[in-house]
Amino acid sequence: MPTAKGPDGIRGDTRLMDFALVERELSTLVKPGDPGMAFGVYRDGAAVFTAAQGVACAEFGVPIDARTRFDIASSSKQFTAACVLLLARDGAFGLDDDVRTLIPGLSLAVPVTVRQLLQHTGGLPEWYALTPLSGLAFTEMTEERLLRQLKGIRRTNFPPGTDFSYSNTGYVLAAVLVREVTGKSLAAFADERIFKPLGMDDTVFRDDPSVPLPRMAYGYATDSGEPRRADTMEAAVGDGGVVTSVRDLAPWFGFLADGRVLGVDLRDALVEQAVLDDGTVLPYAFGVYHGEVAGQACFGHGGKMHGYTCDLLFFPAAGLGVALLTNQTAVNPSQAGEHLVHLLLGAPPAAVSPAGTTPGGEVPVGHWHDPATDEVFTVTTAEDGGMDVYWHGITLRFTEGTDGDWHGTGPASGTRLAAEGGRLTFHPLIRSRRPTVLVPCRAPDPAPMPDAVYLSEELGVLATVAGGTLHVGLSLRLPIEPGPAGAWRAGPYTLRLDSGDLLVSGGGLRGFRLTGQPAGTRAIGVPR
């Protein structure tokens, strides 16, 4: 098939794209009988090409096709944002209104605006990091249960509007906001105002995971090779929860192209980039982020949740949309999707793995600390000359690429470390999250963390440090080890003492404070 390009370097006619090459590439990513993926290419509101590999149900060998539905995880945020922007256009509230006046019962000590909820600039602590500390279970988490937890939160990670910290909490509160203003669930409102008008009949916010959905792919964790069932069981949506297919996404990409049905003003609002108080313009907009693939500007969002991953991208200059949806976790959808886009646009193929094979650069060994988030890394030289990064109980392997940076392999695939000017910059797997800038710090102090009891009034739980273990609520038990920069490590968290209090950071928490209790205090009962 011909592969000619237009004068602007972008193929202007999808009929000239080498879809057969794309399909062959997809076939190399999934073994027969394994959980797989579906891929779609869109132009002018239509799916001009779809392809599928693998099975939707490994137990019965049901093949994936263009109508198979997947959980698209955080890619759902653009639909949540569109719902909130519709209500703002209706005059229900302003984007710069204080969310505390719109959602009764919030305890936030400072104003956080609707805009800041959606652009991750409100400093809201990440609920995925709070929930283990609260004693609640992730499975079957409902909006009501989660809201009770969030209503107790008073402190933000930073003054709202001054920084960016990716937080699913803001999008859960956005779903609550829709219910408070309209009396309808986010699922019902989105169906009425977005999905039905666009003709997206197979797309829903799945806020009751117990309800069977026709043609729904089961989710599988496949990182270790052998598929293991890993379906989504949360009922709280907004930060995620949309279920859709590559066929059903076509009208949405039509809206992203020209604002059809829902309005050009809504499309333009959706892609308006966040601006911090100091004037810094961020790549994140409203549920989408701006970036570049194959030398072309694009916007979109990826997602990963339990047994599902995905990536949705739209290229305005070409009027081209692409979607890669999977029901497995071994394939990095951002890397694979970008590689397929390179093939579609006729650009030089993107390397999916590190390009270098013989490390030659100096490994930045030592201990590293991010003062903003209190994240700590320990870097050592691997036996093969690569780089090992010890981070919260796990060791990640990096190999030097031909670009001079260090690229993650295995579980760290898709991440990147760059050493420059005495600093180490960690580029995360999820492109919508900002890089972490690390500076050298002192080695761990071998002294154990003192036994003590701490209270989180915001979550209503006692945390106990005893015999080198952190105990919180009914089930959280994490061994504590000395960490760099005068801190300790416990699972995904960094622990730090401050004037008799305990500060917990990591996973979207920054210095979450638990107050020290008198000697002899015992942790009894259950969380509220």
Give a verbal description of the structure:
With 528 residues, the protein is of the alpha+beta class. Among the domains are: 201-345, DD-peptidase/beta-lactamase superfamily (Beta-lactamase); 366-440, Lipocalin (Beta Barrel); 452-516, Beta Barrel (Lipocalin). The chain is 20% helix and 28% strand. The chain has 10 helices and 29 strands. The radius of gyration is 23 Å and the shape is globular. 47% of the residues are buried. The model is unreliable at 1-12 and 352-359 (pLDDT under 50).
The number of distinct β-strands equals 29
Determine the N-to-C terminus distance: 64 Å
Which strand order does the major sheet show? 14-15-16-17-18-19-20-21
Query: Could you name the CATH class of the domain at 201-345?
Result: Alpha Beta
CATH fold type of the domain at 201-345: Beta-lactamase
Contiguous helical run count: 10
- Give Rg in angstroms: 23 Å
What percent of residues are in strands? 25-35%
